[in-house]
Amino acid sequence: MHRVDVHRVEDGGRIVDLTRELALAETATDVEASFAKRPQGRVVIDEGVQPFGPSAPLRQMDLGGYRVDPRLDRAHGDADLRAAPAVVRLYRDGVAVSRIQRAFSVGAFGVRKHRKFVPTRWSITAVDDAIAKAILGGVRTYPLINEVRVHEAVGFDDRFLVILIPRAWRYESIEAWYPDTVWNPLGRQIVMFGDHEGFDGRTTYASIGGCYYAARLAIAEALERERRQAAAILLRETHPGYILPTGVWNVREHVREALRRPPRTFGGLQETVAYVGTRLDIPMGQWIRASEVLKHTMYQREIESFAST
Questions:
Q1: pTM for this prediction
Q2: How far is Cα 309 from Cα 257, in angstroms, rounded to an integer?
Q3: How many CB atoms within 10 Å of residue 69?
Q4: Domain map (residue ranges) of the chain
């Protein structure tokens, strides 16, 4: 543990400087640390933070040999470059999202006088959001996909189904948590919740938190690779085998994995819904009642359809 003023990124002392160097490093780095007293405490597991164990006040820290990523170093050295453009530039330069998020959390980017430390969970969502917004600016101009697609991935007793529909960009993420899982540890019934956005995106923070933005980034990436546009729905069904919080990277990487796999394709939504119902345990009627985008695409005709009748 080391207490600092979150606004003192540039003059917070040696430990702060070394922490920033660690975040900018491109290779694994040896760290030697000494503590003011014996570490104490218990292992903490919570959905809001990464698991961590006993801790103690940090007295001194030294780094072994390491090399700073020149791309991260350039973004850090530009005192007039705002944080969001810096994040997008680094992503376009091929820096992994996880490494951008780590550097963002230690206040490495942005106009120098406004730089500050932010909680890891905030940095993760801020980076996911900034990159997805940049990508979706182009996706909204692409032609629609030609058929309904269903992509699927499973991991950690967590099921992810991504439905892509040939409509203008809309997005929705719905999660269903069984009893005895992280977000429903004491419940006796399945809990379902979700959030969505229309063509122009959203201006308020999604109620389901960072997973919404992590999945949206993965979907935006896939549509950009194909230079196509679609309405996207993520259905996540979490079973009791998911007993430890893994972080939103679990959602981002599983949705990425699903979208790298060949999809099942369908000519219409009725047969799509019938198929999805065979891949999830919760009846499709419950998913449809919880959804805004699925109901909209199933029951709302597009204006172009009137011109062809």
A1: 0.92
A2: 40
A3: 20
A4: 14-118, 148-307
Residue with tokens 């948590």: 177
Q: Parallel, antiparallel, or unpaired: how do β-strands 231-238 and 49-52 relate?
A: unpaired
Please give the Cα distance from 106 to 95 (Å, whole number).
Answer: 17
Alpha-carbon separation of residue 1 from 30, 33, 80, 129 (angstroms) = 18, 11, 31, 29
Which tens digits make up the pLDDT trace of 192-207? Answer: 999 999 999 999 999 9
Contacts (Cβ under 8 Å, ≥6 apart) of 278: none
Q: At what angle do helices 83-92 and 120-139 cross, to 10 degrees?
A: 70
Residue type, 25: A
The mean pLDDT of the chain is 92
Q: Answer positive or negative: Cα dihedral of 217, 248, 153, 191.
A: negative
Strand partners, 177: 191, 238
**How far is Cα 254 from Cα 157, in angstroms, rounded to an integer?**
12
